[in-house]
Amino acid sequence: MTSSFDPRALLAESRLGVLATIKADGRPQLSPVTPFYDRSAEVILVSTREGLAKAVNLRRDPRTALEVTSANGRAWATAEGTARLSGPGTDPHGPEVEALVDYYRAAAGEHPDWDEYRSVMVSDRRVLITIAVEHVYGAKLD
């Protein structure tokens, strides 16, 4: 392993990860997600739907971890933290949906039809997960 590896850099560039939450029985629940890591704010943003296992689990127990892996599988990074959920929103121009618009812009860029996106966020009952990053670790294999 190399000491110059920066796991936060891998977190920042990764758009596919696995989010771990804690089931009611204490076992882990793993979900593939599209994360966006804001290094300056030390938060990770993830969109999900209300009622899915990760949202239900995080509302009960906000402890979570996100793992990302490099494309070649030779580097990985894990961020642990505490999640806060906002939404779902009922107003396409309300603060809950605006937060999802900001997430989309950060993670993917501009959407071709923001009115459609906003409408879908409301009808899908989308929720924004904001993870306050408390600990990051990882490794790169030489």
TrEMBL record:
Question: Which Pfam families would you find in this protein's record?
Answer: PNPOx_N
Q: Does the keyword Oxidoreductase apply?
A: yes
Recorded GO cellular component terms are:
cytosol
Q: Does the record's keyword annotation contain Oxidoreductase?
A: yes
Q: Which UniProt keywords apply?
A: Oxidoreductase
**Any idea which GO molecular function terms this record carries?**
coenzyme F420 binding; oxidoreductase activity, acting on the CH-CH group of donors
Q: Pyridoxamine 5'-phosphate oxidase N-terminal domain: which residues? A: 8-137
NCBIfam families xref list: Rv1155_F420 (TIGR03618)
**What name goes with this protein?**
Pyridoxamine 5'-phosphate oxidase N-terminal domain-containing protein
Q: Which organism is it from?
A: Saccharothrix espanaensis (strain ATCC 51144 / DSM 44229 / JCM 9112 / NBRC 15066 / NRRL 15764)
* Source organism phylogeny: Bacteria, Bacillati, Actinomycetota, Actinomycetes, Pseudonocardiales
